[in-house]
């Protein structure tokens, strides 16, 4: 349904040749560009979100390394969103929503791939623990 | 539908589609197509991240991230990429206003930041080799060089692309085609910065934490 609508939009909007021509670059520049303000907002946020994790790790601010890991992972995730929104100018509406669909699909695949690999291989390592010197000695006896 | 089949003889052939539509339509769909390419590139990096996630703690009694990584150097590297992102943004803003010279200056600055990033990375790799940590030393180092090296190769290709586009803009000006190409490179460049966020978080910061 929505695929048809998207496809139809081209020829229909193009009926008046010059009007259609003038319209499209405009729509593109809305989707593809930002303003000085949006770039600076993204830049300042990125700097803050980069400095905090480096400071946490280099200054050994939190004693618990697990907490630090979770915090820097969360900050990295937030910074990725900032980049997507302010630098890549992603929104749910750009290109008729298709870029957003592709992004959601990719994120789904990436999460499955990363979480799945680490999870499966962790258990594999655990169950097929390489024999250490102690086990080898026991087996030999 | 019927009127197309029953057109009187001598009338102009019915137009089912406009041929000049093709060229125009590609303007809009190039961005979507390039976005899809970036998403597939994202999957390549995801597999490399997964590989590093699995092998990143297999040191084979060799050097560990804590022994090898120099965080202040990585911070400088990160700054180079961040600065290059904002300067590319400024180049795009100047492109919107059709100021060729300013666009070129910002592009050149972006390229210099990119070169600085790649140079620092090569220096880091040379230092690691010198420290006795080449890729074949352990599974950790193999996956490390593959992940970080692939990103560095992408940045190098981005710089090459940037130079080619600067020549194009110099020769043909800011025509529609060049604007479209610059927008594609813009997405590519910002995307690489995004991947680097994952690299410095997962590889360098988490590596030193353990």
UniProtKB/TrEMBL annotation, chain A:
Its main location: membrane. It comes from the Bacteria. The chain crosses the membrane at residues 39-58, 70-88, 100-122. InterPro entries: Cyt_c_oxidase_su4_prok, Cyt_o_ubiqinol_oxidase_su4, Cytochrome_c_oxidase_bac_sub4. Residues 1-33 are annotated as: Disordered. Cytochrome bo(3) ubiquinol terminal oxidase is the component of the aerobic respiratory chain of E.coli that predominates when cells are grown at high aeration. Has proton pump activity across the membrane in addition to electron transfer, pumping 2 protons/electron. This is Cytochrome bo(3) ubiquinol oxidase subunit 4. It comes from Methylobacterium longum.
Automatic annotation (TrEMBL), chain B:
InterPro entries: Cyt_c/ubiquinol_Oxase_su3 (IPR024791), Cyt_c_oxidase-like_su3 (IPR000298), Cyt_c_oxidase_su3-like_sf (IPR035973), Cyt_c_oxidase_su3_a-hlx (IPR013833), Cyt_c_ubiqinol_oxidase_su3 (IPR014206), Ubiquinol_oxase_su3_dom (IPR033946). The keyword Coiled coil does not apply. The keyword Electron transport applies. It holds the Pfam family COX3. Its main location: membrane. Keywords: Cell membrane, Electron transport, Membrane, Oxidoreductase, Transmembrane, Transmembrane helix, Transport. The chain crosses the membrane at residues 34-54, 74-93, 105-123, 143-167, 188-209. It is found in: Cell membrane. It comes from the Bacteria. It is a multi-pass membrane protein. Residues 32-208 form the Heme-copper oxidase subunit III family profile domain. Cytochrome bo(3) ubiquinol terminal oxidase is the component of the aerobic respiratory chain of E.coli that predominates when cells are grown at high aeration. Has proton pump activity across the membrane in addition to electron transfer, pumping 2 protons/electron. Belongs to the cytochrome c oxidase subunit 3 family. NCBIfam families: CyoC. Heterooctamer of two A chains, two B chains, two C chains and two D chains. This is Cytochrome bo(3) ubiquinol oxidase subunit 3. It comes from Methylobacterium longum. The gene is cyoC.
């Amino acid at each position: 349904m929505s695929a048809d609508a998207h496809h139809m939009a081209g020829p229909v909007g193009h009926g008046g040749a010059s009007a259609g021509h003038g319209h499209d670059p405009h729509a593109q520049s809305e989707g593809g560009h930002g303003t000085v303000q949006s770039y600076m907002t993204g830049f300042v946020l990125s700097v803050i979100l980069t400095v905090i994790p480096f400071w946490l790790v280099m200054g050994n601010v939190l004693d618990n390394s697990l907490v630090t890991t979770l915090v820097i992972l969360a900050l990295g995730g937030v910074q990725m969103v900032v980049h997507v929104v302010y630098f890549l100018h992603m929104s749910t509406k750009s290109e008729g929503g298709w870029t957003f669909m592709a992004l959601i699909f990719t994120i789904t695949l990436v999460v499955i791939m990363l979480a799945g690999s680490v999870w499966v291989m962790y258990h594999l390592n655990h169950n097929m623990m390489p024999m250490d010197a102690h086990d080898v000695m026991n087996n030999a006896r | 539908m019927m009127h197309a089949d029953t057109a009187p003889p001598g009338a102009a052939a019915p137009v089912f589609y406009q041929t000049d539509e093709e060229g125009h339509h590609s303007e809009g769909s190039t961005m979507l197509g390039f976005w899809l390419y970036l998403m597939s590139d994202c999957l390549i990096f995801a597999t490399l991240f997964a590989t590093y996630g699995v092998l990143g703690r297999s040191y084979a009694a060799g050097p560990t991230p804590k022994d090898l990584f120099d965080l202040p150097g990585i911070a400088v590297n990160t700054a180079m990429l961040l600065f290059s992102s904002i300067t590319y943004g400024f180049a795009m803003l100047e492109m919107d206003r059709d100021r060729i010279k300013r666009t070129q200056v910002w592009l050149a600055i972006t390229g210099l930041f990119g070169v600085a990033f790649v140079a620092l990375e090569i220096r880091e790799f040379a230092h690691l080799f010198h420290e006795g940590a080449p890729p074949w030393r352990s599974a950790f180092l193999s996956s490390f060089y593959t992940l970080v090296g692939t990103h560095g190769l992408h940045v190098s290709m981005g710089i090459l692309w940037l130079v080619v586009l600067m020549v194009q803009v110099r020769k043909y000006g800011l025509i529609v085609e060049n604007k479209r190409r610059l927008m594609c490179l813009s997405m590519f460049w910002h995307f690489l910065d995004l991947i680097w966020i994952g690299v410095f978080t997962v590889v360098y910061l988490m590596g030193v934490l353990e």
